[in-house]
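example protein:
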Amino acid sequence: MSPSPAPFPYKLVATDLDGTLLRDDDTVSERTREALAAATAAGAVHIIVTGRAVPWTRHVLDDLGYQGIAVCGQGAQVYDAGAHRLLTSVTLDRQLAGLALAKLEAEVGPLALAASRDGVDGEVLFGPGYQVQEGLPAVYLKDTTEVWTAPLNKLYIQHPGLDDDELVQVARATVGSLVDVVMAGPGIVEILPLGLSKATGLSLAARRLGVKAAQTIAFGDMPNDIPMFGWAAHGVAMANAHAELKAVADEVTTSNQADGIAVVLERLLGAA
């Protein structure tokens, strides 16, 4: 008689969204859907952990039929997708952010600026010169002073001469004692409240679910996923991931285009 299979080893499957769960056309493959469904049937909870703020995430979750808790805005927002409501939200100190921005511009020159306003329906504001990703909702400003008139979750910055990695490096060196700076994707460098990360929001969500870090597997593709990998028991980088994330990952799977999440989950489920 063959021995009984071991149980699925994790209680929480945390996945980034862009470049990880989503393919390049913003869809989730049937294979990945089935693997996640099998993991949840085996007793795990799937939670999406994304840098996108709720207004940029909500429609994706609705399209996926996702009803659970999502961590949005780089950990600033814990969102109940089924109820369409925020459970927790952290805002950026606007005075401190303004000081950080002034110090950084004194070092590198003018920056293009965008900002994510707090709330389920918070607008994403774009100042002159900011290069916006196609397909994302945007409110364009002629005067960036409007950015500061309501609570914010984060700022986005772009520089005409520095690439993303260079901008993050100089920003951290210049204002890293005031705010956190992360690269969340190509052309997406963000200023966040000091100490905020995906790990912050994920730990809050996990506590609500009664799940511990030691019971968590996490999937991601960008440097903003590094704190989440540090928190989770096992971090899996996609083949398309940034080199900084691959360097701290426990393993590297195939790309988001090639069902990288499903490849790992199927292996774990096969052992279960």
Observations:
- The longest strand covers residues 152-158.
